[in-house]
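User: Let's play a game. I give you a shape written as tokens, and you guess the letters that built it. Ready? Here's round one.
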């Protein structure tokens, strides 16, 4: 069966929806991590699966960067393999170009802008649903929470803070001059910077902090049980930690800094947006104050 969506960049044969809870214990699966069919699962059984732009492909990706016959995935007695079919822009396995390679559980296959995750035959059904949950809640580039889930968590924390009269602070963190990195070195270099900065944020945060990527180069952190003074001290540590990063050579730039706005939940605020606007206003002050600094409500 073939299903075509006018608004989609892909057409897929094989399984189009998650299978029943019995699942197919003898087949591996691919899950679309990036692309127009985000979250979709494709079962891979004994028949080879061809990926490309041509209509006859088992998984069709209607994108110019994808060759008509781009890659093939098939099963051998020893396991599954992937082969590049002499495509123009190559098939990447875990970000490395390949001619042919063995597939292992968790591998990422990149074809054009489509990223597929390979899941081996064990516990496919349960792990598929876990993958969908992560796609719905996490930013795929950094592994931090995405904006939508972050706002849900922030609303929950604000309700708890208001109910128990406990302090709570919000940090809005923005990379300085990030556009120049993308313009000068390209978006892949910018992605390297975002990943390293997010790792630095995570390494310096406590387990009960809520971290998220809420925009292109903008991050946020919720600090439960933190008064303004303690929140500012943490923000200052973040500034120093990011400025001290020795960026990967792939980032192009060697150093990057952040500006941080800090706001506390206080009387008179009633909505998530009130706290977000207060932190944004302080971020603007940090930018106007020369960047690589922290500004907070006084």
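Assistant: Ready! My guess for every position:
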């Amino acid at each position: 069966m073939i299903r075509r969506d006018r608004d989609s960049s892909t057409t897929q044969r094989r399984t189009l929806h998650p299978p029943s809870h019995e699942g197919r214990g003898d087949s591996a699966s691919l899950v679309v991590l990036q692309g127009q069919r985000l979250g979709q699962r494709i079962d891979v059984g004994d028949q080879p699966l061809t990926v490309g732009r041509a209509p006859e492909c088992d998984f069709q990706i209607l994108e110019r960067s994808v060759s008509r016959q781009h890659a093939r995935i098939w099963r051998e007695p020893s396991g599954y393999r992937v082969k590049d079919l002499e495509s123009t822009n190559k098939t990447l396995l875990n970000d490395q170009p390949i001619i042919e390679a063995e597939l292992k559980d968790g591998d990422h296959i990149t074809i054009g802008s489509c990223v597929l995750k390979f899941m081996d035959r064990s516990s496919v059904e349960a792990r598929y649903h876990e993958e969908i949950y992560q796609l719905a809640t996490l930013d795929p580039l950094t592994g931090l929470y995405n904006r939508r889930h972050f706002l849900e968590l922030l609303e929950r924390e604000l309700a708890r803070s208001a109910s128990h009269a406990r302090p709570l602070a919000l940090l809005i963190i923005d990379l300085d001059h990030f556009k120049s990195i993308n313009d000068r070195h390209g978006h892949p270099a910018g992605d390297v910077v975002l990943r390293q900065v997010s790792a630095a944020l995570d390494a310096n945060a406590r387990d009960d902090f809520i971290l998220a990527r809420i925009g292109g180069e903008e991050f946020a952190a919720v600090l439960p049980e933190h008064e303004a003074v303690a929140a500012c001290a943490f923000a200052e540590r973040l500034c120093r930690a990011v400025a001290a990063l020795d960026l990967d050579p792939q980032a192009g730039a060697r150093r990057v800094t952040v500006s941080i706005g800090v706001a506390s939940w206080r009387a008179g605020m009633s909505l998530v947006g009130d706290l977000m606007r207060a932190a944004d206003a302080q971020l603007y002050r940090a930018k106007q104050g020369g960047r690589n600094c922290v500004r907070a409500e006084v």
